[in-house]
Amino acid sequence: MRILLEKLMANYPYFAAVVLFTIGALTVMTRSNLFKKLIGINIMESGIFLMFVAAGNIRGGAVPILDEANTKSVYINPLPSALMLTGIVVSVSVTAFALALIVRLYKSYGTTDAHRIAEMRNEVSER
Amino acid sequence: MTAAITANLPVFVVIAPLFVAFVLPTFARRMRLVEGLVIFVEALGLVGAGYLASIVLAQKGIPIIYRLGGWPAPWGIELEVGSLGAFFLLVIAGVSLPVALFARGNLTKEVGSKERVTRFYVLYLLLNGALAGMAVTNDLFNVFVLVEVATLSCCGLVSARNHPRAAEAAFTYLILATLGSTLVLGGIGFLYITTGHLNMGFSSQELGRIWQDNPHVVWVAISFMLVGFGVKSALFPLHLWLPDAHSTAPSPASAILSGLAIKGYLICLLKILYNVFGHTLIQAFAVHRILVLAGMVAIIAGSILALTQDELKRRLAFSTVAQVGYIYLGLGLVNTKGLTGMLFYLASHAVSKSALFLAAGAMIAATGKQSISELAGIGRKMPITMAVFTVGSLSLVGIPLFSGFIGKWYLILGNLEAGNIIPVAVIIIGSVLCAAYLFPIIRTAYFEPVADEDWQDPGLPQKISLILLAVAIVILGVLPGPFLELASRAAAEFLVLQ
Amino acid sequence: MLNLILALSSGVVGGLIVAMMPQANHRLRNLVVLVFSASGMVFSWRVAQMVFAGESVKIAGEFGGLAWSLAPDPLGAVFGLIASTLWLFAAVYSFGYMAQKHKQRTYYTFLLISLSVTLGVAFSGNLVALYLFYELLTFATYPLVIHERSSEAVKAGSKYILYSLSGAGAILIAIVITYRWAGNLDFAGGPILVGCLKPGLSWLLLLFVGGFGVKAAIMPLHRWLPAAMIAPTPVSALLHAVAVVYSGVYGILRVVYSVFGHELMGQLSFASILPWIAAFTILVGVAIATQQDVLKRRLAYHTISQLSYILLGAFTLQPWGLTGAILHMISYSTLKVTLFFCAGIIAEQTGETKVSRMGGVGWSLPKTMAAFGIASLGMIGMLPLNTFWSKYYLMKGSVAGGRWPLALVLIGSGIINALCFIPTVVTAFSGERVRSDTEQGGRVALMLAPTMFLAAISLFIGLWPGIVWSGVQAVVDWFF
């Protein structure tokens, strides 16, 4: 038990990533409000981003700029952070697109609740 | 000049559609120019893919490696056109050119205004570029980016029709697909953390050394990938978004979504499974059994769901769910015959299903009817459209002389080589069920009294496009020569690694 | 070579010409149908002549990396002869029967196309070609089955497709397994699986027999056949008594003698059960037939029973048994087509389809009922008819194989056959003499001529069996 706790303490960013991912996934699957679904997606993605960035961090490492004065020669890995920049851009575009769709749906149905929309659509198709 | 082009061809096939996609909106007022440009780019893509394929075939399996920016592998990003890459590039170009031709002068009615048509083409080309990228990329993070580009353009295509149902389908698709790509990104993250590489080759080597120390991480990475790509490629219980998305999209979009987009994700999964994890790990973790099982369930369940649909495009969409099952079944056959069959089936389904969707689109456009029972006697009124539909159906069912048969033949051979008996039976049952849901359409079309209405075959470009696809199905079924060669080489290469 | 191509293509070419002709011109269309059926027959005879003369006739090619070949051997030639000859009769009969019926163009188009496909099955030189044509036959004959377009016909058609495709699926699996084990699918050069003794062979045989057994209507795979009797009578006569069901029988003969070979078959435990399955089908089929009141359904169940005669002969794995099987293939087809043709004339001229209401029909249709009577005697296996000889050799084969109870089954089936048909003939002549003489007119003449002619042929073969003997002998020599 103690060993487990110590491992958790040492790797707390990953632990946080898992928690975020789970919260996000649950929100997407259980909430019927379209906005909340979208927020869930964003939380999920944040979890993954956190995991990547944490993987790149090396405790006690220097900024990854070649510096003659740096004697330790341990640098932080800059690649994951760079990758996540791309990831965030992708995430933002997804969010923007989803918001546009929500606006479109709200204009047609007057609600942002997925269940209500499904009901109204079925009524229309039955008629 | 030509030397510069041919040397950089692997990257040109990816960026040419992307580039034109961004230029396109400036010509938005001139519809004919836009359409001409799109078809021109697609034709160029076909020529490029053909040229690359001929080089790959001539080189006897040595892939063309292209270093972006000239940086060597562990640091720079690599593009690799091997047998698989050339094969899939050919499939992409071979399907997207006829689909673009079909869309010509035909979209305004389905999509709405001219500006929307231009936007449709922008998304279409973006999807094309992303798929070409998936075919040639050799870098894990690129896979994620390309998957996202493809997903966003697919969602755009689904919502292209100005209709609330389209927006709803697109939203569901967007949420589930993003869930999938987040899982994929997570899987890539685990791979990167354990191996320290994003290049597939290096990552695979590293993984081969260390996987026994961290089996749990490998397991988690594999399952993230499987579920992530499973959602995106509509593997049976994860297919919920597909029927709505594929049936509400405009017909050319349905064709490209069912025919190609799903195949792009499958190719990515294939690359990650066999090029990164490698067949030894797949067998060590029994992933191949999971894949075969999932495939069987998808074949049966998808077919039964398709049987219950009366709406033409929805039936075709559910049929895609079933057909994807065949490809998953093939993914799990760790032998040359099975993987050849899987690749060939993938190509065959890409061509056949786009032919079916386009023919269905032409019928719906001409009649305004959505349901199968209302299309009685349409075979007499629209002979070419219905003939192409029949060819596509025969191919899906797996009748000899059509492409699907060869794919099934190799899948069965592969299964027998792997010692699987039940999947063989499932493949055949799937064919019979496929006949059960497609032939009633043909019967209604040909053998029921002709309705007294003015239905007509679509215009010339649409006819040419349909006939091109039908010819492709027959050629793949009768003379698959170089195509089968590429597929079997790609399959052999997957098993040589490690 | 040229003869083979002409024999195979005449049906398809004729079918396409008919499809492109205007609806209204019946005379010209009938002429085209006649010419192309006749040319199909003539060239099949030429092919058969060459085959029996020992010349090799072969076309081969490749699709999708799979080699196919069309290379008739004596068995294929015999099947081709039976099919193409009867096709001509059925075509002439159709001119009478189909006059004034709807959708004639579709009917003749697919009738001719089916001729090509059936000949393709007959002349196939390896399993790939056999499978290809076998599968195509299902689709080529489907429009003929649903010709009525009623909901019942559509249902029967769906049943037909479903049964056939399931069977074809089993065959496909079996072919792939054979290919894996033997690496070769050609019929030429002895049995494919010779010297390939593996534990799964019995299962492979089961797959093959189950697959082809659908079209050969082995019980319990026979359900589609009575349902398909909804088709027009010439189609029922030709396809469901001869062409389609024979393609299944032919497939099983191929499997037994060209894929496994009689020596390998003799070592399989499953192979020793097969004659009993055939015997079961013989008895039960004909027993159900006696219970049917609708004449066409009675004939359908009777077909199921008779097909198993052929299979029984093949499954004995004796030269005499195979002789009987091939003889029965020839004899039975002529008689059964006669019976169906008579049933069609009765239904068309008097409107009666049920046996119980056919009292007195014989007086108004004397020639028809005479032909019917002759054919009935043949079905029992009486001496002046050709089936006597085939039954004789079937029994000889059964006894030679040490399975004498099978001979008893054949005798018993003959007795039930008598119960099945003799009362029908008696009723037809025993009712009131309502002699309205409905056998006049050109339309009936067109139907009556092929019927009488076929009955005469059956008698002729019965009296001089020597004329078919050389062909039968060639088949048996080829395999033993």
Descriptive account of the structure:
The complex is a heterotrimer of chains A (127), B (498) and C (480). Chain A has 127 residues and is mainly α. Chain A has five helices and no strands. Chain A has one domain: Helix Hairpins (Orthogonal Bundle), CATH 1.10.287. The longest helix of chain A is centred in the last third of the chain and has 31 residues, at 79-109. The N and C termini of chain A lie far apart (62 Å). The relative contact order of chain A is 0.11. Chain B has a domain at 286-498. Chain B has 498 residues and is an all-alpha fold. Chain C has helices spanning 2-20, 26-52, 74-98, 104-123, 127-145, 151-182, 201-215, 224-227, 233-260, 262-267, 269-291, 295-315, 319-350, 361-364, 366-380, 387-400, 404-430, 442-463, 466-479; strands at residues 59-63, 66-70. In chain C, α3 (74-98) runs antiparallel to α9 (233-260) and α11 (269-291) runs antiparallel to α12 (295-315). A two-stranded antiparallel ribbon of chain C has the order 1-2. Chain C is mainly alpha-helical. Chain C is built from 19 helices and two strands. Classes of the chains: A mainly alpha (127), B mainly alpha (498), C mainly alpha (480). The interface between B and C is medium-sized, with 33 and 28 residues.
Fold topology:
The complex is a heterotrimer of chains A (127), B (498) and C (480).
Chain A: H1 2-10, H2 12-30, H3 34-56, H4 79-109, H5 114-126
Chain B: H1 2-7, H2 9-23, H3 31-58, E1 64-67, E2 78-81, H4 83-103, H5 107-111, H6 114-136, H7 140-158, H8 164-195, H9 200-210, H10 215-232, H11 242-248, H12 251-284, H13 287-307, H14 312-331, H15 336-367, H16 378-381, H17 383-397, H18 403-417, H19 422-447, H20 460-478, H21 481-496
Antiparallel strand pairs in B: 1-2
Chain C: H1 2-20, H2 26-52, E1 59-63, E2 66-70, H3 74-98, H4 104-123, H5 127-145, H6 151-182, H7 201-215, H8 224-227, H9 233-260, H10 262-267, H11 269-291, H12 295-315, H13 319-350, H14 361-364, H15 366-380, H16 387-400, H17 404-430, H18 442-463, H19 466-479
Antiparallel strand pairs in C: 1-2
Helix pairs in contact in C: 1-2, 1-4, 2-3, 2-4, 3-4, 3-9, 3-13, 3-18, 4-5, 4-9, 5-6, 5-9, 6-7, 7-9, 9-12, 9-13, 11-12, 11-17, 12-13, 12-16, 13-15, 13-16, 13-18, 13-19, 15-17, 15-18, 16-17
